[in-house]
Description:
The protein is α+β, with helices and mostly antiparallel strands. The protein has helices spanning 30-44, 46-75; strands spanning 6-12, 20-26.
Amino acid sequence: xxxxxxxxxxxxxxxxxxxxxxxxxxxxxxxxxxxxxxxxxxxxxxxxxxxxxxxxxxxxxxxxxxxxxxxxxxxxxxx
Length: 79
């Protein structure tokens, strides 16, 4: 892997305002990062994000339940 070059610039407004400005410039992989950030933002927020989190939680619950059921069956099986 090649290290990504990035620079961070911080500037404070000199007119007494309380707003600060921070800008980040990434290296050659900036297009990929913005693409992944866009997909992540779309899948992890809003109604779609909530739906995916709920479905993931339900799927995880059933996977653990079935794994526990099968494990318990073999552990407590009569000989």
